[in-house]
Amino acid sequence: MNKITTLLKRTLMTVLFLLAVSATYTSISGVQAEELTEWWDRYDHPFYSAFYGADAGTIEDSAIRETNLSLKSLKRHEAEVTSISSSYAESDSLTLEEAIDWTQYPSTVVTATGYTAGVESTGKSPSHPSYGITYSGVKVKRDLYSTVAADLSVFPLGTILFIPGYGYGVVADKGGAIKGNKVDLYYETVKDVYEEWGKKKVEVYIVKKGRGKLTEEELALLNEDETMQVFRQQYLKDTKS
């Protein structure tokens, strides 16, 4: 009787120990219980050793199985962050440059120059009736989607470009000196132009070709897209710092 009691106690302690180890492993690795069950059913089944051989349970095999489980967990995590969404973008460590595969879009190299709505760039003072109004009729704007000027024969009004280091630029304006692959990037002040951009050659990505028009409503919808707000907040935080 004592032997049976001792055996039952040892069995119970072993089961409790295995449950504790399972809970700890699941908490640390993120591997769910059903995955451990699947692993147990496959590799600890009585017929497994008979089918695969007596050495199927070696340390090396165990390590491989654990690695496969970790990779499975990692792949599941990667799948959760492949699209831009509010749930994915909870991590503010990713920038737009990092979050999207920009190679899926056609690209071209342009000479990009910063400009303002002021006299130094447009010859217009704040008292001018068309101050800050672009050729499309939209007011100049620096945001996640900013208004930019381009050669409309190259980039029609409404074209959406992604400019690394600047963000999205929506073609809303033109200029007499803007010919060919040239783009003027809007900034609110001359100080911003000099400190944040100046003039440089950069590879831009053509996200969407315009239809020759742009409205305030269309620009607002782009900037208020719920799935993009975390990136917008990153941008606003960076510009205010």
From TrEMBL:
Short name of one Pfam family: 3D
A GO term for molecular function: hydrolase activity, hydrolyzing O-glycosyl compounds
Key words of the record: Signal
Protein name: 3D domain-containing protein
Record keyword Signal present: yes
Signal peptide start and end residues: 1-33
GO biological process, one term: peptidoglycan turnover
A Gene Ontology cellular-component term: outer membrane
Record-annotated 3D domain positions: 146-207
InterPro entries membership: 3D_dom, Resuscitation_pf_RpfB, RlpA-like_sf
